Amino acid sequence: MSDPIDRNGLAPRFWETKRLSQLSDKEWEALCDGCGKCCLNKLEDDETGEVALTRVACRLFDDATCRCTQYDIRHQFVPECIVLTMSTLPLHAYWLPQTCAYKLLWEGKPLPDWHPLISGSPDSVHQAGISIRDGTVSEFETPEDEWEDHIIEEPT
Ligand code: SF4
Ligand code: SF4
After folding, report:
1. Which of 18, 50, 84, 155 has the fewest beta carbons under 10 Å from its own?
2. Which residue's CA is the nearest one to ligand 1's atom 8?
3. What protein family is recorded (predicted)?
4. For ligand 1, atom 6: residue with the closest CA
């Protein structure tokens, strides 16, 4: 599968030599591993703040490619979809997947070997069993009062 993210021409292991705040837009985008886990609906307990992940994917998510079908214009359809930047990352880190590259680097942790920037292939995230490709149900076909039945452990 070709990589929908342009990771060509980047300095080797740039994420180890620069701070997140120093990354160019291209470097920032290249950090996304394509796991798709941030496109799953979560259930948050108002009292405890605990976040449970469900297999119910956002309406724009394509389960077969593990990508957003309308990424560039997604806010026309899903206005609540977050824009992850250096300033919004601290607000969202608590619910982002444990393996999300942005969260890992923000926490001072290394990227895993299956990350496309290290493996050189966008498929390695799927081969390592980290992504949610072919593992979701549609938001359209799953009423919100049934989401609790679809709570899953994060694949890590
Ligand atoms: S969880 Fe992080 S690394 Fe995975 S698709 Fe979302 S932004 Fe990219
Ligand atoms: S709009 Fe696209 S990027 Fe945002 S959660 Fe939905 S599928 Fe993911």
Report:
1. 50
2. 32
3. Belongs to the UPF0260 family.
4. 38
> What pTM did the predictor assign?
0.96
Q: What is the pLDDT along the chain (156 residues), one digit of tens a residue?
A: 678 899 999 999 999 999 999 999 999 999 999 999 999 999 999 999 899 999 999 999 999 999 999 999 999 999 999 999 999 999 999 999 999 999 999 999 999 999 999 999 999 999 999 999 999 999 999 999 999 999 999 999
- Cβ(78) to ligand 2 under 6 A? yes
Element (H, E) at 103: helix 101-106
The CA distances from residue 131 to 64, 76, 85, 88, 122, in Å, are: 11, 26, 22, 23, 11
Residue (of 7, 19, 5) closest to 102 by Cα position: 19
Ligand 1: which residues within 6 Å by Cβ?
32-38, 84, 96-97, 100-102
Ligand number nearest CA of 115 is 1
Identify which ligand lies nearest to the alpha carbon of 117.
Answer: 1
Q: Which residue is associated with the tokens 């701070």? A: 19
